[in-house]
């Protein structure tokens, strides 16, 4: 009986797609660092280079780590549900912290140089993405990690949580693309059309960001790659439902 309930191995193709997504994500981070280092002078906190902290931190936090947090339930298929939830939540916290550093850097840079804030579409999308991401984390913690939410409430909210998770990754990548375009127009507007190396690198970076998002979305939307519940999780889920909804096991059907 236990053998029949044993977890199957990872579905064919899943590991390959996850590995490619990680390679792409790390390549995007490396290219962003190379862009800031090779063409924008490097990264520092107490100088004019403080701005360069912003794009690097936002891509690490709001794109790479956010995407990895979404993949947790596909990659860790044999670990307990609670452990997977905790890892999922911690990756989101790390992403929020790194993104917050990026936001502080750009606002501080603007303040020191008397630049206007929050006037561009990029900035509006960026602050919206960060704020909604924080709210999404709070809601997820309240419903799925905090013990107060009932079984029916968790079930009702789950589809919304999944939808907004994918939406926020899309919004974050779109905001990064707007930021890349904005930075290029500010820095190399007169030479951008001449296919200068900085412009080419930034364009390739944008394409890789889109590809990373597509891969994450593809992995998340394949029904056969979803994490099936362990046998003990089904039993615990039924016990939790009975406790929070007041249903008897015989009436649960």
Structural commentary:
It is a single chain. The protein has about 250 residues and is an all-alpha fold. It has one domain (about 15-230): Four Helix Bundle (Hemerythrin (Met), subunit A) (Up-down Bundle), CATH 1.20.120.1770. The protein has helices spanning about 15-40, 55-75, 80-110, 120-145, 150-190, 195-220, 230-245. Helix 1 (about 15-40) runs antiparallel to helix 6, helix 2 runs antiparallel to helix 5 and helix 5 packs antiparallel against helix 6. The longest helix has about 40 residues, at about 150-190. The chain is globular, with a radius of gyration of 21 Å. The two termini are about 20 Å apart. Residues about 1-5 and about 245-253 have low confidence and may be disordered.
